[in-house]
């Protein structure tokens, strides 16, 4: 059987890892699998730069915010005719983006992808990348089969992804969709490499600069982090299995393989000590862990003073830090049933956190100013 | 430094202060170009008035405060273990002069002379920012412990000068001086324990101002919790936190960090007085006593931060 995957978001953290996975597994080389990556104008995906050159990988220019992804008629016809699987990863991952703007990409874009998929005669399966944080402000155990809730959201990103998942339900019976709710990706557990520096990396950067005053939450909050290659391997496996009754999967870590918030901060400080010469002599204090109200009052004050540096760095925290006030555990039943041994295979963050931090420090959090 | 709370511990039976006479509102300071931030923001942060001395030197105010103290507590000179003087601002005297002898015109000598304290050893501390009072008290207390005398005098004072800008890190700065009597066996304000955290990496305050702002709350929390532990005083046993008069806003946040009721922080002087470098705690203690806000047996925590940089907390029992 030949598989022809239409992939959006191929240049992102997950997309590049998934393509790397298919290269290493030999699936692309054997010609059993072909990928058409829809890149978007003005984005990072200038084929040669981010995506490897390979006969099995084709790049077409597209824009998910447009109907038919804005493809020209010929490219569209070819894609519709050949696509067997759709892997929809593209999203705006800017937590603080205005709701209408992020909805246009994450909900409108998903609708366009589903509508295109609906017209593909050979279509077998559509994979929608989502986030475990569609659970928003819910607390406690979150099950894969649950979506609807009235707890609210911490940022516009969570809301938009929730709405995108709801759209998948709307398309039930029209398109065979599976939803992969990914936890926060830290980096590659083997090499420590980081594709994009996101919320947890920024929080650690602020700590390394001695600018982390406080974080909302409780010391025993479980920070759920997963390595890139685990997510890629799971998606690669799940997307090629025929869709079944199980439609939603948590690609998260079991609680015991996660840091508590306090442990993550302490480990981060120990690692900075090891990685940054002279860092320990600065004796930066660890951030205080405070209530949401205290954190908000502090943020308000920083904003009011117009302090550019603190305002900038703390501003980077404000759109996701509140999630630390809503402790939850992600149930992994569906994933464990579909990928036997999944939970055992999830690497413990304690084993690779140091490697990822090493990359952060060496690349100065992706600023391009490396010591190599 | 910690002591078992008992009658007969060293403490502060009497204290006095002098605020600079001229009182300027935030709007007046703003019109005079003496603020960095908008008056509205500083008002929102809890400030309103600033006290400005007509000289860039605190000696007059310190002498006034000391005379008032000695009037209230006429101590025999031979009972004094020392005179301890602190200013956080550099002395405004000449740094070069046509006649170099003018460099040796010492304010400390003048204070000693005018208070007739020639026979009393003097100690002068500097460069501890707003932690100066706490450090000077601790020194006075430890000297007293090893001496056969009964008491010491601590004088603090700082004046920025009539034309100086009045805002530091979103705080409005006033000029004032204070005087305290430290008695080896005090029936009031008995010292229980103190704790200090020093971060000398921040010695260059302008270069590290953002790190200092960021560290302020976590280190305040740590130093307060350690001082309370040394004094065997749970947070809820505290009747009052006697603040240094930084913004009300920052106290609200610190109370949130500590889980402490902001109504039990004496905040009313922040608008009335503003923040002085080294006299806030004495000003607040005197006013709290005058207003009958403290009862015997009440536990008080005095917290402050000083450029340089250090965080300091002391626990007393009234
Ligand atoms: N990384 C995580 O920790 C994480 C966690 C949970 C869920 N997820 C989900 O996983 C998926 C992939 O995330 P990621 O981390 O790989 O994201 P990412 O690194 O931010 O990459 C986003 C991708 O979307 C593409 N894109 C953005 N706007 C587009 C548009 N208007 N039209 C076409 N393409 C567009 C980007 O293309 P350009 O590069 O060309 O701009 C890029 O390839 C997303 O759905 C995300 O919500 C990720």
Query: Which structural class matches the secondary elements of chain B?
Result: alpha/beta
**CATH superfamily caption of the largest domain in chain A:** NAD(P)-binding Rossmann-like Domain
- Shape annotation of chain B: globular
What is the CATH fold-level name of the largest domain in chain A? Rossmann fold
Task: Label this structure with key terms.
heterodimer; A: 372 residues; alpha/beta; Rossmann fold; 2 domains; 7-stranded parallel sheet; two-stranded parallel sheet; 15 strands; 17% strand; B: 318 residues; Peroxisomal Thiolase, Chain A, domain 1; 5-stranded mixed sheet; 4-stranded mixed sheet; 9 helices; 26% strand; globular; binds NADP nicotinamide-adenine-dinucleotide phosphate
Describe the model:
The complex is a heterodimer of chains A (372) and B (318). Chain A is 41% helix and 17% strand. In chain A, helix 1 (13-25) packs across helix 7, helix 4 runs parallel beside helix 5 and helix 8 crosses helix 14 (349-362). Chain A has 14 helices and 15 strands. Chain A has two domains: 3-188 and 224-256 and 328-347, Rossmann fold, CATH 3.40.50; 199-219 and 259-325, no CATH class. The longest helix of chain A is centred in the first third of the chain and has 20 residues, at 99-118. The longest helix of chain B has 22 residues, at 209-230. Chain B is globular and about 50 Å long. In chain B, helix 6 crosses helix 7 (248-258). Chain B has helices at residues 26-31, 39-44, 59-72, 107-114, 132-145, 209-230, 248-258, 268-273, 280-290; strands at 11-19, 22-25, 49-52, 80-87, 122-126, 151-158, 167-168, 171-174, 176-183, 190-198, 238-242, 275-276, 299-306, 310-317. Chain B is α/β, with parallel strands linked by helices. In chain B, a hairpin with a 2-residue loop joins strand 7 (167-168) and strand 8. Chain B has two domains: 2-183, Peroxisomal Thiolase, Chain A, domain 1, CATH 3.40.47; 190-317, Thiolase/Chalcone synthase (Peroxisomal Thiolase, Chain A, domain 1, 3-Layer(aba) Sandwich). Classes of the chains: A alpha/beta (372), B alpha/beta (318). The interface between A and B is medium-sized, with 26 and 24 residues.
């Amino acid at each position: 059987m030949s598989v022809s995957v239409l992939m959006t978001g191929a240049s992102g953290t997950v997309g590049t890892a998934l393509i790397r996975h298919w290269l290493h597994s030999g699936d692309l080389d054997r010609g059993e699998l072909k990928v058409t990556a829809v890149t978007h104008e003005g984005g990072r995906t200038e084929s040669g730069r981010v995506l490897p050159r390979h006969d099995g990988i084709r790049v077409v220019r597209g824009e998910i915010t447009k109907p038919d992804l804005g493809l020209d008629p010929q490219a569209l016809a070819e894609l519709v005719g050949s696509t067997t699987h759709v892997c929809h990863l593209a999203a705006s991952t800017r937590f603080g983006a205005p709701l209408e703007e992020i909805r246009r990409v994450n909900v409108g874009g998903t609708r366009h992808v589903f509508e295109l998929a609906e017209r593909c005669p050979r279509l077998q399966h559509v994979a929608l990348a989502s986030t475990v944080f569609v659970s928003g402000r819910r607390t406690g155990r979150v099950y894969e089969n649950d979506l609807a809730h009235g707890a609210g959201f911490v940022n516009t990103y969570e809301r938009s992804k929730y709405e995108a998942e709801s759209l998948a339900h709307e398309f039930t019976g029209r398109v065979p969709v599976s939803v992969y709710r990914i936890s926060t990706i830290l980096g590659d557990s083997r090499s420590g490499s980081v594709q994009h520096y996101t919320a947890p990396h920024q929080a650690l950067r602020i700590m390394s600069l001695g600018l982390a005053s406080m974080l909302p939450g409780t010391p025993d909050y479980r920070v759920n982090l997963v390595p890139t290659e685990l997510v890629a391997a799971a998606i690669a496996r799940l997307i090629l299995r025929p869709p079944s009754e199980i439609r939603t999967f948590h690609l998260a870590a079991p609680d015991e393989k996660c840091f508590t918030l306090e442990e993550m901060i302490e480990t981060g400080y120990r690692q900075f000590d090891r990685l940054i010469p002279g860092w320990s002599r600065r004796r930066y204090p660890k951030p205080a862990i405070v209530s949401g109200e205290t954190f908000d009052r502090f943020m308000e004050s920083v904003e009011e003073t117009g302090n550019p540096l603190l305002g900038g760095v703390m501003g980077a925290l404000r759109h996701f830090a509140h999630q630390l006030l809503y402790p939850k555990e992600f149930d992994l039943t569906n994933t464990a049933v579909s990928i036997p041994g999944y939970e055992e295979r999830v690497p413990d963050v304690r084993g690779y956190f140091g490697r990822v931090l090493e990359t952060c420090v060496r690349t100065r959090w992706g600023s391009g100013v490396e010591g190599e | 430094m910690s002591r078992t709370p008992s009658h007969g511990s060293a403490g502060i039976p009497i204290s006095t202060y002098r605020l600079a006479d001229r009182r300027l509102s935030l709007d007046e300071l703003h019109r005079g170009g003496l603020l960095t931030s908008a008056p509205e923001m500083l008002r929102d942060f809890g400030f309103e008035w600033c006290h400005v001395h007509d000289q860039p030197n605190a000696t007059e105010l310190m002498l006034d405060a000391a005379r008032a103290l000695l009037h209230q507590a006429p101590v025999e000179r031979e009972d004094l273990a020392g005179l301890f003087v602190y200013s956080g601002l550099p002395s405004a005297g000449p740094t070069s002069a046509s006649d170099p002898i003018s460099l040796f015109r010492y304010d400390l000598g003048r204070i000693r002379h005018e208070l007739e304290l020639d026979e009393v050893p003097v100690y002068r501390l500097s460069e501890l920012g707003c932690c100066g009072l706490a450090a000077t008290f601790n020194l006075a207390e430890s000297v007293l412990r090893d001496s056969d005398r009964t008491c010491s005098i601590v004088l603090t004072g700082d004046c920025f000068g009539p034309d100086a800008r009045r805002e530091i890190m979103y705080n409005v700065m006033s000029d004032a001086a204070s005087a305290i009597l430290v008695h080896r066996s005090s029936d009031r304000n008995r010292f229980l324990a103190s704790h200090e955290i020093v971060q000398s990496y921040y010695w260059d305050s302008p270069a590290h101002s953002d790190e200092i702002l960021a560290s302020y709350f976590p280190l305040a929390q740590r130093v307060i919790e350690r001082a309370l532990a040394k004094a065997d005083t749970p947070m809820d046993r505290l009747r009052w936190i006697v603040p240094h008069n930084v913004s009300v806003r920052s106290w609200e946040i610190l109370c949130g960090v500590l889980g402490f009721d902001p109504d039990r922080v004496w905040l009313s002087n922040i608008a009335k007085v503003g923040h002085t470098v080294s006299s806030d705690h004495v000003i607040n203690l005197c006013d709290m006593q005058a207003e009958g806000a403290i009862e015997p047996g009440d536990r008080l925590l005095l917290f402050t931060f000083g450029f340089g940089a250090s965080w300091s907390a002391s626990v007393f029992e009234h």
